[in-house]
Specification:
It is built from three helices and four strands; from the N terminus they run ααββββα. The chain has a four-stranded antiparallel beta sheet with strand order 1-2-3-4. β1 and β2 form a beta hairpin. The longest helix has 15 residues. The chain is globular, with a radius of gyration of 13 Å.
Length: 99
């Protein structure tokens, strides 16, 4: 995390689909909590498959991967579940809450 509370990713590890997903999640604290919940279900082995999504990006979570697909622009991306989980948990720190 940077001093401005933004996740820092090396340029060669940046996934644009994950960035789009996190941008969408960052506009809705309730949605971010739902994503954290579904991610925890996988992490705690209560589920082997969860689907989460935003208006633009749908994500299939499994214990091994996060398979992301853009609903409007097409394209897909697959990253390790652990990277997805870390990104969502770090992103929660900067999601504005109603207040």
């Amino acid at each position: 995390m940077s001093d401005q509370l933004r996740p820092e990713l090396p340029d060669d590890q940046y996934d644009p689909m994950l960035g789009t997903f996190l941008w969408d999640v960052g506009t809705d604290p309730d949605l971010c909590l739902r994503v954290l919940y579904h991610t925890a279900q996988i992490w705690q082995r209560r589920s082997r498959r969860e689907v989460v999504g935003t208006e633009g990006v749908s994500v299939l979570l499994t214990p091994d991967h996060a398979d992301m697909e853009h609903r409007y622009l097409g394209g897909s991306s697959c990253i390790p579940f652990s990277e997805f989980r870390s990104a969502v948990e770090e992103h929660w720190v900067v999601v504005p809450t109603a207040g």
